[in-house]
Design brief:
- With about 350 residues, this protein is mainly α.
- The chain is about 65% helix and about 5% strand.
- It has two domains: about 5-125, no CATH class; about 130-355, no CATH class.
- It has a three-stranded mixed β-sheet.
Length: about 350
């Protein structure tokens, strides 16, 4: 083989590697996700408690310096890039095959980054096992007892919350995480958390989205149009995701505990009324449901009615169905078997928490 042939072969190999490396990495990441399902303890020890806290600290220390959402801007740029490439390929400014290859490479890279930067937390053990709780069976008497407690606590903690309180609420939520992290099996401080407003808050609220966590930049997002009554609980929920808690039910449980364990009445009220909604939903078909509702303070009922009317007025049914379907598929793909129903599984977790911590 002459020198020119060797050079051409080397160039060909380099091109092949350049074109295929994103796919090899994504395949490797995918295979690791399949293995992770069977080795939750390994993931917990080496990723959730080892690698991820370092990632969270590194990326959150950078993203906190930026006042706007890097996650939102990033996805706008990605979508614009894909659309622009499609237009150029239609206009034959670039080859269609080249466009398809580059788009596939980009998606493969994004898929890999998602799991490397946060997604492997989906495969850690459930919170009951992480904390060491004894299994609690669903029991109607226990359910009713806790519902009674939630009604009393919600009535007692009633307080008007204003958006002007948000900065103080953030500090209080953070302080509660610091104090209660060991009880919840949370690796504190796990970097820093700066709540950011969604760039497209109005659109997301129409879809029923009150907040989300952006894993690429380790960012917490809360909807600008969220009612103040929901802000402490939603903030606690999204911060739970930043701590590596992927299950929506577990994030709801953590938000509840963080809110009611605070000495601040705003957090308590938000926590109790948020969980009360989940319990009332499960109790709606039970005998005596109306009696439970009638025992609520009139001011609490006023808040809940206003809340329902407000969100229903903002919601777009078509967008909401699309978002729910997409979120349902996303959760199921990531080992959350119940999909969007996972949110309401917080009821069982709260029952377990009460039974294992004697917090009646």
């Amino acid at each position: 083989m002459d020198l020119n042939s060797k050079k051409k072969r080397i160039v060909s190999i380099r091109k092949l590697v350049l074109y295929t490396w994103p796919f090899f990495i994504s395949i490797l990441v995918f295979l690791c996700t399949r293995l992770s399902i069977r080795h939750a303890g390994f993931i917990e020890h080496y990723y959730s408690k080892g690698i991820y806290p370092f990632i969270a600290k590194l990326f959150s220390s950078f993203s906190k310096l930026i006042p706007f959402s890097l996650w939102d801007v990033f996805w706008v740029l990605v979508i614009l890039l894909i659309i622009t490439g499609l237009i150029f390929s239609i206009l034959k400014k670039i080859k269609f095959g080249w466009y398809i290859l580059r788009t596939a490479q980009l998606l493969a890279i994004l898929y890999s980054l998602f799991y490397i930067l946060w997604g492997y937390n989906y495969f850690r053990p459930k919170i009951e096992k992480r904390i060491g709780w004894e299994n609690s069976k669903d029991d109607e008497l226990i359910f009713r007892s806790i519902l009674d407690t939630l009604i009393v606590k919600t009535n007692c903690s009633y307080l008007s919350i204003s958006s002007s309180d948000y900065s103080k609420i953030d500090s209080l939520v953070e302080e509660s995480y610091r104090k209660n992290s060991s009880e919840l099996g949370i690796n504190y401080p796990n970097g820093t958390r700066r709540p950011k407003t969604m760039v497209f808050s109005n659109l997301f609220l129409k879809s029923g989205v009150s907040g989300y966590f952006g894993p690429f930049f380790n960012e917490i997002h809360v909807n600008h149009y969220l009612l103040p009554i929901d802000y402490p609980f939603v903030l606690g929920h999204e911060k739970a995701h930043q701590f590596g808690i992927t299950s929506e039910a577990e994030a709801n449980l953590v938000a509840f505990v963080i809110c009611i364990k605070s000495e601040d009445q705003r957090l308590k009220y938000s926590g109790y009324q948020s969980l009360l909604l989940y319990f009332l939903k499960d109790a709606s078909q039970m005998k005596g449901y109306k009696d439970y509702v009638n025992r609520l303070d009139k001011r609490v009922i006023g808040d809940l009615r206003f809340r329902q009317k407000y969100y229903e007025g903002m919601q777009n049914k078509t967008l909401s169905k699309i978002q729910t379907a997409a979120n349902n598929s996303y959760l199921k793909v990531n080992h959350i078997e119940k999909g969007v129903m996972n949110y309401n599984q917080v009821v069982s977790l709260v029952i377990s928490w009460y039974n294992n911590s004697n917090n009646y």
